[in-house]
Specification:
alpha/beta; Rossmann fold
Length: 184
Amino acid sequence: MYKIAIISGSVRTGRKSHHVAHYFNNYINGNKLGTAEILDLKEFNFPVLEERLSMTPEPDASSLLFSEKIKTADIVIVVFPEYNGGYPASVKNAIDLLYSEWYHKPVGLVSVSSGNFGGVNAMSLLQTIFLKIKAVPAASFPVPNVESSFDENGNALNKEATDKRAAAFLKELLWFAEAFNKMK
């Protein structure tokens, strides 16, 4: 069973992307595709980055825990909203906290927006960031009109169509995880 870390990237009050993180957690665990766990950046509450974790003389327990969760995950799914054409600072801060933990890590990008385009501008920007640090943005899952797509418990309002898309998204990520495990 693959270990899948799901980063819930928004720290805002009233965030809707967190509902999508719950959907993926429930879908993965419910379909026994792996062992999924949500890493909620709101709960981690990282300070604004002053230095990467590896160069911090006395790292806090929260940062060490986050590092270990990313390092030991076979796949990381980042669920994030698009704010003003970009991703939230909380996501960039969490990415930049680490470096070697991202190396050759299959990453699934789940962009969320209240509009019709599903956060594809932010997704494009994050793909570039992950490529720069040698992670592998292997699959994408844009979520347009999030308010009318998921409830607060992570239930997809059009379950059949959403589950079909999620199956294809996760199939791609699992393929990369299996391929990378063979290369170790």
